[in-house]
Amino acid sequence: MLKIAVLISGSGSNLQSIIDAVNSKELQCEISFVISDKNNAFGIERAEKNGIKTYIFDKKEYKEKLSDTILSVIENKVDFIVLAGFLSILRGDILKKFEGRIINIHPSLIPSFCGNGMYGIKVHEAAIESGVKVSGCTVHFVDEGTDSGPIILQRTVPVYYEDTAEMLQKRVLIEEHIALPTALKLISEHKVELNNNKVKILK
Ligand code: GAR
After folding, report:
1. Looking at residue 39, what DSSP letter applies?
2. Which residues form the active site (predicted)?
3. Which of 37, 86, 143, 184 could hold 149 in an S-S bridge, CB 3.0 to 4.6 Å?
């Protein structure tokens, strides 16, 4: 069975969507660890409630040692790393050792509204400001860039003239909670093939 570590920084609603998919047996996978880079992340409570092993490595304390510390805990113990609202940037060995085995969820249709400094509500503020009529979320592989790795799947939502960033965020989050477990299910069923930086979903 696919073993994963889920990395979070906050509420952990995307983590919850994975927990729910596992508990309902929709997703055959084991969440071996939940790791937060922030003290008091509510996602840690969600994990503990489900008997999942947790670690908190606060980024203010661990700074440039964060990625190596995470690697030291999960190396040889998990197959995949899932960034579910994890707001630190992974660097160094962890990217090499888990090459092609780290995925992230981003709350826009990449390559729009992504990259350095684009996270959380800022993404939706930028989408509203630009006047786009469609937004959504993207699950993608993580590489050395920010939000630049191959796209696995995207889900879209309409953007209305009257929307606030918070309204759009809520609408996109509903789709995130479908997208992330769906991507993991495809991975667990070996249906995600990476060819020349592009993903083919096998039937
Ligand atoms: C989600 O909207 C996720 O896409 C976003 O943070 C939120 C975390 O929510 N991630 C990023 O912006 C990464 N660039 P959650 O803690 O409730 O899952």
Report:
1. T
2. 106
3. 143
Q: Which atom of ligand 1 is nearest to the CA of 107?
A: 4
Q: What CATH number does the domain containing 200 carry?
A: 3.40.50.170
Q: What is the pLDDT of residue 200?
A: 98
- Name the domain boundary from 55, 71, 98: 98
The pLDDT tens digits of the residues spanning 140-168 come to 999 999 999 999 999 999 999 999 999 99
H helices, E strands: number in the chain? 7, 9
Report the number of distinct structural domains present in the chain: 2
pLDDT score, position 182: 98
Q: Whose CA is nearest to atom 2 of ligand 1?
A: 107
Q: Whose CA is nearest to atom 10 of ligand 1?
A: 85
53-87 pLDDT tens trace:
999 999 999 999 999 999 999 999 999 999 999 99
Structural domain includes residue 103: no
Residue 88 marked ligand-binding:
no
One domain, residues 66 and 88 = yes
Same domain, 7 and 34: yes
d(CA 122, CA 114): 10
SS3 106: strand
Under a CB-based contact definition with an 8 Å cutoff, are residues 103 and 139 in contact?
yes
